[in-house]
Write a sequence for this structure.
């Protein structure tokens, strides 16, 4: 019996060694662009550690590639490692100060850490560099909502909708802002529009809106 367990242990160690060697062999790629593509592919499959390893190698080969830092930052964000993500976005911005996406992504990471003023500053910059960035307006509006600055939030959600009329999330967010302003008719309009676009509205929010507006929907 002891020899059987020893055989299983040795087999496990052997397979682990093979897997490790295969991974090392894959990472021997020397084209930074191919490494980035592989990093993105692994991220899409949820293999975040492998993704980061490929971005690490890409950055080692080309330390001035702002996209590699940005993309690695996205993976760190998916893993909830927001401080590391922010560091990567900051590096991307240092290399390419006009890279709106890095400001947007860093803003989102700041939101996740509850750093709302820093998030607003980053969304401001993303919008300055790319005035058509509907996501930046929507997410800045969400931060304004967290700060209870509902007029500013509504203005941003409205701009996001203007830029992307199919953005159901922006209608939902604006409905919430109208609710907190007690503008219930406007909130219902956005609820209906969001539902028309296929968005499922939180039942708890609908119940609160029904009670507040006196409607039996």
């Amino acid at each position: 019996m002891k020899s059987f367990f020893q055989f299983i242990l040795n087999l496990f160690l052997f397979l682990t060694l093979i897997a490790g060697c295969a991974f090392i062999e894959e990472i021997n790629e020397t084209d930074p662009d191919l490494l980035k593509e592989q990093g993105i592919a692994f991220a899409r499959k949820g293999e975040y550690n492998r993704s980061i390893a490929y971005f690490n190698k890409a950055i080692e080969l080309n330390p001035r590639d702002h996209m590699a830092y940005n993309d690695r930052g996205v993976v760190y964000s998916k893993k909830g490692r927001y401080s590391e993500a922010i560091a990567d976005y900051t590096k991307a911005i240092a290399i390419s100060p006009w890279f709106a996406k890095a400001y947007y992504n860093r803003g989102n990471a700041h939101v996740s850490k509850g750093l709302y003023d820093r998030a607003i500053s980053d969304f401001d910059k993303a919008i300055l560099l790319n005035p058509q960035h509907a996501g930046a307006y929507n997410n800045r509006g969400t931060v304004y909502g967290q700060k209870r600055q509902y007029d500013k939030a509504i203005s941003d959600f409205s701009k996001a909708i203007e830029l992307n009329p199919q953005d159901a999330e922006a209608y939902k967010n604006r409905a919430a802002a109208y609710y907190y302003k007690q503008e219930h008719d406007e909130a219902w309009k956005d609820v209906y529009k969001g539902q028309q676009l296929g968005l499922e509205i939180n039942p708890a929010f609908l119940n609160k809106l029904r009670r507040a507006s006196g409607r039996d929907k």
